[in-house]
Amino acid sequence: KAGVTQTPRYLIKTRGQQVTLSCSPISGHRSVSWYQQTPGQGLQFLFEYFSETQRNKGNFPGRFSGRQFSNSRSEMNVSTLELGDSALYLCASSTWAGPLNTEAFFGQGTRLTVV
Amino acid sequence: TQLLEQSPQFLSIQEGENLTVYCNSSSVFSSLQWYRQEPGEGPVLLVTVVTGGEVKKLKRLTFQFGDARKDSSLHITAAQTGDTGLYLCAGALTPYGGSQGNLIFGKGTKLSVKP
Questions:
Q1: A8: which of A59, A92, B14, B22 lies 20 to 30 Å off by Cα?
Q2: Are A21 and A12 in contact (CB under 8 A)?
Q3: Cβ separation of B45 and A105 shorter than 8 Å?
Q4: CB atoms A100 and B95 under 8 Å
Q5: pLDDT tens track of chain A, all 115 residues?
Q6: DSSP character string of B7-65
C-alpha cells in the first residue's frame, strides 16, 4: 500500500513568487491536512480538507490556500512568497473512520526555501 | 498560545541509558498520539492512547496517558542510537470526528543518543 506522496521534495523560490505543492494521500483516505514546520514554531496546522471541502483552517494569512480534488489529491498554494515562508511543508492523510480516529499519516514533506 | 508543552526540548544521552519525555497541557484530550520524526522526513506515528491512565508498550518504549487525559509521557529503556530523532506528541481536542484540525502538536523533544 503506497504511503502519502508529496511533490516536489525540494523547492527554491524568490520573494514575491508563488508556489504550488502537491499531495497524494493513502488510497481510501479522504481527509488531507497541511502543516508548516519550522525550527522555532514546530508543526503548525494550515488547513484540512475532507471530500473536497475545507473543514478547518489554521491561523495563517490568506496567501496560503488549498484545494482537494475528487480523487482526494490535494494542493496547497502560497502566493507572494516571503522569506519567513521557508519551511518544511507536510501533508497528512487520515481515514476518518470513526470518532476517535485521528491518526495522521505523513508524507516526507516539501522543503521550501525562499531567497 | 501553546496548548501542548513538551519537555525537555533537547536531550542528549549515552546508549544504554533510560529517559522520559513529557507532554503536558491544561486541556483535556480525547486521544493523544506520539510521533517520531527523523531529519528531512515526515513524522511517523508510534502510538495512540485514548483512555485516562492507559499504558502502552512498544518494545523498549512505554507510553502513558494521564488519568485526567491532560498529559502523557514516553519512557525509553536502554536507549539505542536508532532512537535518535524528534519526538512529537499530538492531542485531539474533540471526541467527535477525525478532523485533523483538532489535532494539536507540541514542539517536540529532540533526542540524541550517542554510542
A1: A59
A2: no
A3: yes
A4: yes
A5: 579 999 999 999 999 999 999 999 999 888 899 999 998 888 998 988 988 999 888 889 999 999 999 999 999 999 999 999 999 999 999 876 554 556 789 999 999 999 9
A6: E-SEEEEETT--EEEEEE-SS--SEEEEEEE-TTS--EEEEEE-STT-EEEETTEEEEE
